[in-house]
Structure formats: C-alpha cells, structure tokens
DNA sequence: ATTGTGGCCTGCCCGC
DNA sequence: TGCGGGCAGGCCACAA
C-alpha cells in the first residue's frame, strides 16, 4: 500500500505535469473531500484548479502536494520567489492515496504492485481526474476510496519526513510527550510512535514492521523505555530501511515480508514469528531477536 | 492531553 | 460451485 516510498514514486510521476495548465476537473465520486481549509468542495475545486498551472510536485510523508500558479504566468513567468513572498504557490492541492490509491498521469499508472488491492487496473476506479489543456490527464485511481483530495491541506503539524529524519527527531518522537521535557514519558508502543504521522511522517504498517525487525526492537515496547543505544539503532534502521526499500521499489519488499503470515519463520534466526495488534495494526515480529 | 478503538471503503481469499 | 465472512490498513472521529 502506499507508504512514503510509493508516494515518492507518485511524486516523480507527477513531475510530468509541471508547467501544464488545468483545463477541467472531474470529481467522479464524492470521495474523500477533506475540508480542513473549508474550500474543498466540488465548486471550490473548480474555482481553484481550472486555469491553474502546476509549478511543482512535493511530498511530505504520504501526502503529495502540487503547487499551483493561478496567475497564468508559466512558463517563462516570474521566478518562484516573486509569485508570492514566502510561498511559491498561489494554491496547493493535496492528494492522499489511502491504502489502494495510485496516481495515473496521461493514462499511465505506476506499475507498482500494490498489496491489498486488485491486480486489475481499471479506470472505473478513477475518483478524481484533471484534464490538461494539452489533452493529457492526471487521475487518482483508488478502488477502496480511502484516499482523498484537499485544497491547501494543513501540513504544519506533520512530523519530519522519514527519509531524512535526524537522530534528535527520532529521540523526540519516542521519548514521550513533546511539550513537557521533564515528563516521565509515555507508555505508547514504539511502533505506534514511529507510525504517528505527526511525529515522523511517512511510515506505514509494513515499513514499521521491517524497521523494527531490522532494529531488533519488539513493536510493543514502550517507546519511552528505549535506551539511547537502541534509539540510535532505531534511527539507523529507519534511514536504512527507507533507502533500501526505495531502491528495491516498494514498501512490501522488506526482508521480513516473507515471514509475515501464519506459520512464518524469522528469516534471520528461524524463530516462529509472532503476530498481534500493536498500535491498532496487525504486527509481526520475531520473539527471539526483537526485544 | 495522550492513547486506544472502531469504522469507513471494497476486492479478494478462504472455507463451507 | 457459489456465497459470505473476514481481512487488509491509512486516516479520522470519538471515547476514555
């Protein structure tokens, strides 16, 4: 399913839309209209997007952000820093992909093999589509309709992206309530903490299991109880896992994936894998080397 | 306030 | 063979 690795691939796909002007939009399904900004309605999307030109494709965690220029100044328009002081974009379109969403540009989907969704690739699952003036299209194709679209999504609370998270940030994410330095720390499971998008952005269930498996940390361990040394290992595992699985091409290509089923054995030491719900998600871990 | 839980959504797989 | 229950998890609303 789309975790940050997949969404990063979508972002690269989305760069093919840079410089192109939106001629029309189709909301084929009243799905996932998030309305934090109060403007994400069918009419609001029409007003904001039609006539706009895509300036850039960014990503924070699992959220894809398209910066839009509504002045019609591209290409050859004013430099980005002149468009508006402090913000390069007049408008920002946020796209979320839930579990089963893909981005389709000019009819070509990322050929990612997404887990937990259909192997078919059918345009009937296009929930939101943009038609460009040059005749091309961009669509969010999402069988399960767990994704969504939002104008100007609030990204202020999102944590640092997992691709470049620092040790200090990981320590802060696991060390307890963010605001009270002197607090005794929380009882939350370490897995819940690293999957909390407001603490670290981009890690989903499969990445989390792989990261903890590599770090030798059981998912249910209280985050605040992690020693400094184990936190260092966790941080290293986050960076290494994200980089490694990005190279392999998907969140589902981790080493522990093969053992993530009933009767599975740890690929590292052969122990019978354990399964349980941690952080509200099905979790698999090795009882022998994950403590 | 922080943490946990349930539900949404739908394709697919398994067992009867 | 067909059918239905359970499952998958990102995200959010809600409860405690």
Task: Describe the SSE topology.
Layout: H1 4-14, E1 22-27, H2 42-49, E2 53-60, E3 63-69, H3 80-83, E4 91-96, E5 102-105, E6 108-109, E7 126-132, E8 137-141, E9 148-151, H4 167-174, H5 190-195, H6 205-215, H7 228-248, E10 274-278, E11 281-285
Antiparallel strand pairs: 1-7, 2-3, 3-4, 4-9, 5-6, 5-8, 7-8, 10-11
Helix pairs in contact: 4-7, 6-7
The protein binds a DNA duplex (16 and 16 nucleotides) through residues 1-3, 31-32, 34, 62, 96-101, 115-120, 142-148, 177, 179, 186-188, 192, 195, 197, 204-206, 279-282.
Structure write-up:
- By secondary structure, the protein is α+β, with helices and mostly antiparallel strands.
- 24% of the residues lie in helices and 20% in strands.
- The chain contains seven helices and eleven strands.
- The strands form three sheets. The protein has a five-stranded antiparallel beta sheet, with helices on one face.
- β2 and β3 form a beta hairpin.
- The longest helix has 21 residues.
- It binds a DNA duplex (16 and 16 nucleotides) through loops.
Brief write-up:
With 291 residues, the chain is of the alpha+beta class. It has helices at 4-14, 42-49, 80-83, 167-174, 190-195, 205-215, 228-248, and strands at residues 22-27, 53-60, 63-69, 91-96, 102-105, 108-109, 126-132, 137-141, 148-151, 274-278, 281-285. The longest helix is centred in the last third of the chain and has 21 residues, at 228-248.
